[in-house]
Design a protein that fits this description.
3 helices
Length: 312
């Protein structure tokens, strides 16, 4: 998972820090630089997400994090050595989130049921800063059911669909005027049955006497952003909905029974789309909010441009 603050809130960093599933290297005789390749310190991948063997949602990007910066001049070559194959052909592209993270996403959501493979053949590939790859990495995963949730901040509702069919509409509360919720589409980062949340960890308040101070362990937590946005149950807002008139510190609140039910429905990569908040869209690298960039914006961050997945 990506590592970040474990609390609701408007504070904290909007940037993602990488600690996803550790990249698994394929060891072979070719895993060492050829004598004809330039010598230098190794270029390694810190993480590749999703993990091999997992089933993820239709909005899940492939996210690759390098241990060292990749220079702009080397990114087109690096992209071409990170081959994406799929059982159903889709158009997509890489996009650099700074100099250590590159995400590949399809132009539109993945088709449910697609098997996807990334072959990162980094052996001998340079990062433009004097480092050269010494490993090949392969991850294979599957796109599961098309589960989506659409949250209306002003309507106090969350509409859940599965494979295009309406499943349930739940009552919610979202952020307050002081601590508004992020808008836009955020793919689920991960989920946990319990999360310890503190106002201090996201820069809201470390003063125990403040009305905005909290230090709670809360259940049924769906993680949406690195800056601390979750969908979950809150003891301070047990019956959310338009009648309760309670605002959160940026999270989306569900009742205890609804939170437990929703927890059982969603998986990593399912898109949660929030509308009606004045805050604006979450930055693309604040978790996996890749689809908050339109296609032209996405391609602007690509060194090699749009491509089509190889056959799998």
């Amino acid at each position: 998972m990506l590592v970040g603050a474990s609390a609701c809130g408007g504070g904290g960093s909007d940037k993602a820090s990488g600690d996803d599933a550790k990249a698994s290297a394929k060891s072979s005789a070719s895993a060492s630089p050829s004598p004809t390749k330039p010598a230098g310190p190794p270029m390694l991948l810190d993480t590749i997400t999703p993990q091999t063997g997992t089933t993820v949602g239709v909005a899940m990007p492939i996210s690759v994090i390098f241990t060292n910066p990749v220079a702009a001049k080397a990114r087109a070559t690096v992209e071409k050595h990170m081959k994406v194959s799929a059982s159903t052909s889709v158009a997509g592209a890489w996009h650099w989130m700074g100099d250590r993270r590159a995400d590949w996403r399809p132009k539109t959501y993945w088709p449910s049921g697609t098997t996807v493979k990334i072959d990162a053949d980094m052996t001998g590939v340079g990062n433009g800063n004097g480092r050269y790859g010494v490993h090949n990495y392969t991850h294979t995963f599957k796109i599961g059911d098309d589960v989506r949730a659409d949250v209306s901040v002003t309507g106090h509702t969350m509409k859940v669909t599965k494979n295009g069919a309406a499943v349930r509409t739940l009552s919610i509360n979202a952020g307050s005027a002081e601590y508004p919720t992020w808008d836009g589409t955020m793919a689920v980062i991960d989920k946990q049955e319990k999360v310890h949340m503190t106002s201090c960890s996201v820069g809201i308040s470390c003063d125990k006497g403040s009305p905005n101070y909290y230090d709670l362990t809360l259940p049924w937590d769906i993680h949406l952003t690195q800056s601390g946005t979750y969908v979950h149950y809150s003891t301070g807002d047990p019956n959310p909905g338009s009648g309760s008139a309670r605002g959160s510190h940026g999270c989306v609140h569900l009742s205890l029974s609804d939170a437990k039910w929703f927890y059982g429905q969603v998986k990593q990569g399912d898109p949660i789309t929030i509308t009606g908040s004045p805050r604006g869209k979450a930055p693309a690298d604040n978790g996996y909010a890749d689809f908050n960039l339109d296609w032209s914006q996405w391609l602007a961050g690509s060194a090699s441009g749009e491509g089509t997945t190889a056959a799998l």
